[in-house]
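Q&A log
Question type: sequence-to-structure
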Amino acid sequence: MAQSLDLFGTRKHKAQISELQQQIEELRTENRKLETKLDKRSKKTKTAIARKQEVEEILNQAQQRITTLENELATIVSEVSGNLSFSGTHLLNKKSFEDVVFKLGSVRSKSRTLHSVYLTGTARVSDFEFGDFIDESCIHLFDQIKSHNGKVLFYDESHCISLAIVPPFAIVGSEWVTDDTLDLNPLKTMLEREGAICGVYAHAGRTVVGIVGGHGGHDVSAEIVRTGVQAKHTKGGWSQRRFERGRDEAIEHHVVKVREHLRSMWGAGGDQGDHADRTDRTPRIDRIDLIVAGGDLRLARKMLEGTKIPVIEKRVDAEGAPEDVVARVVWAGRLYRL
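Response status: OK
Response body:
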């Protein structure tokens, strides 16, 4: 049989096609391998990024804890610096404050030996002549308690009661009352107050803002303002200086975001934005009577700079849900056993 002629090079083309198809398949196989490697590497990268963010969050929370504990330590140091010897000091929240007021309300004296001494933040113990009615050592301890809110002393001449309270809000008038019961009206007024209070618990990268309102401050709404602020480190040298510049810029950005939120909450208009973690839609309030700041107080002052609303600063540690944090800061007080 005569060999047929391949006039159009069909066999050659088929061979080339087969070879190309084989190469394509090999490339596809290699591509799948590369995609698998890339996918694994991408997952590792995402895991690393997530882990880095998690570590940064832990470090920031640790820094927040350090700041608040430093504030608490500063209070304790100031109390013991004058060789003071309180029988005990206790932080008060709203519930414990209510309980203390309720229990003190049950105290009675047939001989009218119960003393209630209210001092404003600018008043002094020396403004009154207590004579022998109140023990001198008790007056000395009471005099050493420092508070911009003022303070109140409850004392019984029979030595059944000897305690001081730094209330959550400012005492409006100084007075000394002696009677068969303790004068608790100023404290009860605080517990029954109307109006809205703004709470700010400031920390770099994570600040809790909210409003306490309603009769007796029972209505609480709050949210977290988050921005990317890296935790502090101490590598030193040029790297440290560059890091600090970047961190300072990030903190300034955080301050701006918090200010925007505060203006929005105070009824200045504007959208709340997506940079906050809301637990409840904070109501717009036409009038805020008071601002209470806690956490990093230097940072809080930057956030509240220029406001005409009265501000109370408190050295207080607060954890938990945003509403709990705001309520803790707003209602924080202190009880001293003298």
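Response note: The helical segments are 10-80, 94-104, 136-144, 185-191, 237-265, 297-303, 322-331.
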